Batch of 4 targets.
Target 1
Amino acid sequence: MSELVIKNLHVSIDGKEILKGLDLTVEQGKIHAIMGPNGTGKSTLAYTLMGHPSYEVTEGEVWFKGENVLELEADERSRLGLFLAFQYPVAIPGVTVANFLRTAINSRRRAENPDDKGISIPEFRKLLKEKMDLLKMDHNFAGRYLNDGFSGGEKKRAEILQMATLKPEIAILDETDSGLDIDALRIVADGVNALTGSDLGVLVITHYQRLLNYIKPDYVHIMLGGRIVESGGPELALHLEEQGYDWVREKYDETVA
Ligand code: ADP
Ligand code: MG
């Protein structure tokens, strides 16, 4: 089983340190949720894992399948089996959801075996149908042009379908800044629930407590001041819902400042 191992990660933006020694391991088959108040560095973690050039890693390591993830380009991370949910083209004129998915699958197959001839059309159709049925999606969706006039919920549907067909070992979903309405949250949650339990490991980064009413994480982590300060089971999310973050700030603010 693969795991994503983040060790002592320090990240700066414009010379200002945002992540200050973050440690986390996400195993295949488990759902981890990171929660934390605004400004603690949740999106910074997501963008760093995605390989965004503005985020400078000053210390620490990220390992996956024996590779130092921080040295890989974003598309190499994806071919290795890491799925980063915001790594999407904005809108590609003339490219349908189905074409986009087939290209992505073939790119991943060729990364594993350079001689791979690509997925055949009948095989791809079968896979797509199977995944769309699993996710309770209308088959017409695959014929739509990618992101062209998509609602927030449809963008999420495309992401989840991509996750289902690409079969990554670890998916990182940043639901922090996306302004999700409740329908879009449900699409993400239903998709994650349909896909986990198999080999998929998920790291959900979220500001919204309510997302965790739909996704049942195995582990919940609280982030504060650029580090993970508390880790526990689902009960930690319930505790946050009842108590908010004040107790966390009181306990750690002085030590993480
Ligand atoms: P969160 O997602 O937990 O709300 P962020 O990772 O977005 O937190 O931000 C963490 C800190 O980094 C905040 O203090 C924010 O102001 C700062 N920050 C985020 N992005 C930038 C940026 N592009 N330039 C400068 N500072 C930034
Ligand atoms: Mg954010």
Target 2
Amino acid sequence: MPRKPIIAGNWKMNCTQPEAIQLIRELLPLVSSDDLSDRVEMVVAPPFTALAAARQELAASTISLAAQDVFWKQSGAYTGQISPAMLVDAGVRYCIVGHSESRGRFGVPEPDFDETVLRHFGDSDETVRRKVSVLFQFGLTPICCVGETLAERKAGRTDATVIGQTERALQGLTAEQVATLVMAYEPVWAIGTGEVCDAPEADRVCGLIRATVERLYGRTAAERVRIQYGGSVKPSNAVELLAKENIDGALVGGASLKATDFAQIISAAPHR
Ligand code: PGA
């Protein structure tokens, strides 16, 4: 069964409510053809404060809403956190977890720490695993990010890093759950830097994620799991990336904040 490409816009810490409404109003007419929604699944991930406004604007569209993070507890004294039940209440369908900007290793010196790729929020493989697991409990679909830093790539540790992060994020899930989730291969050095991972290499690493899923959860899960590439995706490189066999979509940061660019990236999704 062919996998339907999924293109998600990660707005990060951008867009007040009026800005979110404006962006969506610019985007909708550009992507509202039936042909497009038949061939590609579209998602936007506004910041928490704009979810309600975005939900209203998207109500009559085929674009789904995603959150950018979640906490794994249902409620309680967790100042600043958002629970999965709150995301359900906000009309969210997908949730990004383990984004490299949310991962980090507080207390552990990071020789490769790069100020231009800020990683603040202390997500670890274990917190990512908990978040993935709780999202399933609440009927939400994770968009689970993995990817190596520049130092890891230079040290020849790309494959081990990506395989290890994938294994640990998915631990404890059933094959059926894994089949429905979305993985995103996001090389940290390619995020927000304008430096894109070339398409054959992005395809190779996405294939590695798929092989890891196959080894642990079987063939069917591996054939069904969708794996996005993310990191400086733009209209000029989207066609080549999205044509690759193991790349089932894109997680788009900067370019998703411009309606025309995001619409062009969505249109670049192949017929499958
Ligand atoms: P970018 O971000 O497209 O701005 O590189 C991608 C991401 O962080 O998801």
Target 3
Amino acid sequence: MVKKFSTPRGTNDIYPPQALLWQELETQARRVFVRYGYNEIRTPIFEESELFVRSVGQTSDIVQKQMLHLSPQGATRAQGGAGLQLSLRPEGTAPIVRAYIQDNMDKKEQLSKLFYIGAMFRGERPQKGRLRQFHQIGVEAIGPDSCSPYLDAEVIGLCLEFLKNIQVPMYQLKLNTLGTVEDKQNLSKKLRQQLKPFKSELCPDCQNRFDRNVFRILDCKQKACRQIVAKLKLDYTHLCEASREYYRKVKECLDSLNIRFEEDPGMVRGLDYYTQTVFEVCSPALGSQDALGAGGRYDNLVAQLGGPQADAVGFALGLERILLAREEPQTPSGQSLDVFLVSLDEPSLAGNFKLAQTLRQQDIVVDMSFKPASVKSQMRTANKKKARFVVIVGQEEQRQGIVTLKDMQGGHQQQIAVDHCEQAIKRILNK
Ligand code: AMP
């Protein structure tokens, strides 16, 4: 028995009809993002592992459990022998900040507005809405002294505008603020105080998180931990006056755009780099993995990664989850054809082969059979491919120097000279 291969666990093939849906999402994303002044950036799919450890955070789930490392040999080879540990990118923000610093973008423009579309990789236990290779669309706005509640609201507005444009039926915006680094430390302290009496009842992971990253306890899915978290008193008393004012202004900006949101003081996000505004967009259609996307402000990350002082805000949306939430009623049937060429014998096939090239050069979508066969079977193929017209060439047409052109919608059939064929098809297709 010859071994048959299939996709590795947690990855999917995207077959041609579904790929059309993906293209549509990507086209809409580009259209909306460009309208807000964002430009596309593409970065490698692997980076030095340390980039993610120093940005996402040593204690985050991503770094603790989900990084997909290249094997030592692979990493060494990819690095040209330097032997640094490389990993497939688990998220897009850190690579973009790395690129921002590497390209000295702060010297070129006051605010770099960037977007990306691409595959991300996390070694998770696969389930619905949770894959090992998934795709994100995201934006990042980075610039020295660019921290502004207006920009936060623009980024959130842009995210929702995209979801509206691609007709995601229902979604909900959850909003919170973490405040400055000092405010976050105050919040950690308060959380530890409140959680301390219950520490022994937390799951083993959360007992570890208690000292290392107490915020992560708020995201734990274990029932016991959720019951304890539900009892916590979460408010905004950990914030300094300036953070409070900033948050008030963000909400005011969202109100001015008529954006409805729900405040969720327990939504703290799992990545270390966030400060001030954080948000999540959820869809009730998604079940337990209900986040379509999430984002927030990260004003210290650029400097933390060795760059200049630069503030930043961004988000990432998961494409697979968007497609799940849209619940496409049916997959599209694929690209339709302008013309299908039917060849009844070898000389006709040779003639049609050249005709196909001429028509395609005129921007006409053409396909054909590559072996002579019966009219019936080739017409069946043309129908399946939803061809608008069929050109039939056999011995008789060859002898007379004509082709038979059949309109597949009305069924009308006419014979035209081969030399006029290209012009006639262009005319009827309005090309
Ligand atoms: P995160 O970077 O974890 O905040 O994720 C942002 C968005 O990416 C999520 O809301 C999901 O839509 C998507 N996402 C994250 N991890 C996965 C995954 N393992 N599988 C599919 N989508 C994911």
Target 4
Amino acid sequence: MNRGTAGPRVITLSRANHYNFSGGPGALPESVLEETQRALLQAPGHTLGLLGISHRSPWFRSIVDEAEANIRHLLHLPRNYRVLFLQGGGSLQFSMVPMTLLRGSRRPAEYIETGYWSQKAIVEARREGPVRVLWNGSAEGYRRLPRPAELLHRPDAAYLHYVSNETVEGLQFHRLLGNQDVLRVCDMSSDFLSRPLDPTPFALIYAHAQKNLGPAGVTVVIVRDDVLQRAPRDLPAMLDYREHARMGSIYNTAPVFAIYVTMLVTRWLRHEVGGLELMDVINRGKAAELYDAIDSSDGFYRGHAAPGDRSLMNVVFSLPAPELEALFLAQAESAGFHGLAGHRSLGGIRASLYNAVSPDAVDALRGFMEFFRRRHENQREV
Ligand code: PMP
């Protein structure tokens, strides 16, 4: 830990992956990177390297099966849910969900607009049918989430959609939304498998891989069987969850690399970390450390999100002046901390603390933040 008056710890290039605070694609466990490197030349249990193996091979089938089994185990997922590995990122789910559940419906879908990504989901849903935005945080600059009394759900909704963790603004729901009358759909792209989750209140959950799960290129969809039956019959096969479920996620050429790494990460979570309860303890500790650095900075660092709605995954904050932010980012980068610039739509600083970011890395970042504040505290008006 470095909280003394000496400069920030200088981090060597070989440790760069360790100090990756990027919003995504982000940090992956060191052991997974090493195993992936070996598999590129020769995959375990196969004679070929990972990138040359057929998606129709029994070997790849076993990889998809293990990835699914790991996710089922981590979530205690009941048998009436399918686990699908799809392409098109979180963004395609913004369309596939309403194509499946809203196309041709007179009943509106309920959406909650809590930030950049839920707003994008709403734009796509409106192409497919009526949307009722239950709550919109844009007038308040997406700094907080709705309180329970502000959400008047109606039982006639086709479904309810929300984003559990707004990656850009650093807002995270710490409770379940909606009620039993309406199908719940949730975009968990940036907090999936970061904490324990009871999947049973959800009709559909989706999460792209490039935060907590692996590289870009694959999106996990968990969908309850009865939702599959509601899909219109004339959807293009690639946009039809039923077709992907029927083919066990290998309808067309699947992203072998991305699914392989996702399998390794879920194996790591299951066997090395020891499950989601333990992951949650680690993640809470990391977030508490950075929020404490913000809260004890006498207003030098300013958190974006209302304290009760703070994300454990994305810590978003600003400094007293844009010039200080630029200096912070430049010095952080040269001290070896990567990916700290805020999202292009918001600016400021964002430290993403996904599962693979170690407490040690967060500790070092806190040390840097304190060092920087002490040096620049009297320059608030630069
Ligand atoms: N939802 C959330 C919560 C996200 O953070 C993102 C992207 N970071 C998306 C959806 C869009 O995902 P993709 O870029 O994979 O389409």
